């Protein structure tokens, strides 16, 4: 029997004037699951979180948390971290958490929460004097003082240094292990791949793909690849038994400074090195990689953008045709 969803969205629609933020967005998240929402800026992630938490009223569709409307559910059972959360800065970190703890009848000790987010030694520091990453961790802590059953985190690790980010990751993992349901949005694919039991890719206001990270990578990530740091043209590899091309969107370098050999196992790398040396093709480095969640993101987001652009062009063409007919 399929488990009952703790958080559910069915066909949510939301527009702001002519801007469509949500277009039939649907998802279901089970108890104790970590569900990551990924997608480009403007895809509707924050609007979806707001609709699920009752801070935005959708134009149509239905959202439910623990079987109730988001506006009817006991707020003491929820923790919500907005992307733009800005608490009062003339309080210490401890005073801030104590303030939010005072909003609940059975709250956690602020010192324990500070320890959870890795800030046990900064409780007496003014919030405004904390670094940006420390401030964000205090904000994460503010969502935990009521020990929520369901936790919504909108870009929780934005601005946090790598060590602090891992502290937050471990905290989220511990919360999920104890039964807390976590819905988070992120642009960090490594974060989503590590934390999420399942991932949903949002594009143009709809969830266009969902599944475990491994399943999404298997279905949409493409093949393994060997990146060769070289200015040689792909045509120089015409008789190599593996397909070679310029990277479509290369990470951290110019596309003209590398070629990518696809569908290649690590055991075959030596044959590529021999090929380079026999043909005196200069190169400065080799990197082999399996597809990951970032490849899925790029593939599906690019596809969605192309479809959206094609739809806009079709509407423009039809409008031009109508205007031309009226003019004639």
From TrEMBL:
GO terms for molecular function: ATP binding; ATP hydrolysis activity. InterPro entries: AAA+_ATPase, ABC_transporter-like_ATP-bd, ABC_transporter-like_CS, ABC_transporter_ATP-binding, P-loop_NTPase. Keywords: ATP-binding, Nucleotide-binding, Transport. CDD domains: ABC_DR_subfamily_A. It holds the Pfam family ABC_tran. Residues 7-229 form the ABC transporter domain. Gene3D superfamilies: P-loop containing nucleotide triphosphate hydrolases. It comes from the Archaea. Belongs to the ABC transporter superfamily. This is ABC transporter-related protein. It comes from Natronorubrum sulfidifaciens JCM 14089. The lineage of its organism: Archaea, Methanobacteriati, Methanobacteriota, Stenosarchaea group, Halobacteria.
